[in-house]
Hints:
Blueprint: E1 2-7, H1 14-18, H2 20-27, E2 32-37, E3 51-52, E4 62-63, H3 65-77, E5 84-94, H4 97-103, E6 108-112, E7 129-132, H5 142-153, H6 165-168, E8 186-187, E9 190-191, H7 201-219, H8 221-227, H9 233-244
Helix pairs in contact: 7-8, 7-9
Amino acid sequence: MRIDVITLFPEIFEPVIGSSMLGIARDRGVLEFAAHDLRQWALPGVHRQVDDAPYGGGAGMVLRPEPVYEAVDEVRAADERPGMVLLMSPQGEPFTQGVAEQLSGESRLILLCGRYEGFDERIRALADREVSIGDYVLTGGELAAMVVCDAVVRLLPGVLGGETSVEDESFTTGLLEYPQYTRPASFRGLDVPEILRSGDHARIAAWRRDEAIVRTARRRPDLIARAWNHLTDHERDVASRVIEEPSEDE
Ligand code: JAH
């Protein structure tokens, strides 16, 4: 996959993309990554302007359309794959594991990161999708773009080294993960549940499924509602008992 990012802060991507799993993906040739400075396409003039005051008045500055359109044209032309254009924005569709899976099937992504108080509405027409990583305001789209890159690239074949783990992760199963333990068996009076040390793999699998349901029902009842049709009668029982449970502070 090739990912091009268009941003006023290209340098903040290098340490993130160069390390961790994204760096490994790049070294293995699974990922080609480039961050482009939007200033390259600034309006002619000493100020190298990319933003301007909003029509109609109001606080702050808005990203102008011309630099962004020229940037997308030129970046797009650098490769024969057209690329899906994504706009990072708090007004976008929620970025979920399902969206990450869809994007991981693309051969090229072009990510647009805004700054200032927002972008000229006409910039939206350039984007195939507008995505939000959550309901909070950032100072720009760059951190959101890095989150999207991380979630998408780790799904590419050859990045995680073929673990089955991707498939039974939270959000892939639609439930939160069950509790995990490693050595020591006892730590500061906190013990690993006996069943996990029993060697009884069938009982361990059943315990983990129940614990995943209990945890999800307590913390994210919205996910239980969504998974309801895929749960067994026993799992629905476990979830219902938790949902009926009086909460701690009542
Ligand atoms: C902030 C342009 N979903 C998180 C998110 C994404 C982008 C932005 N904020 C939050 C943002 C300022 C300018 C984009």
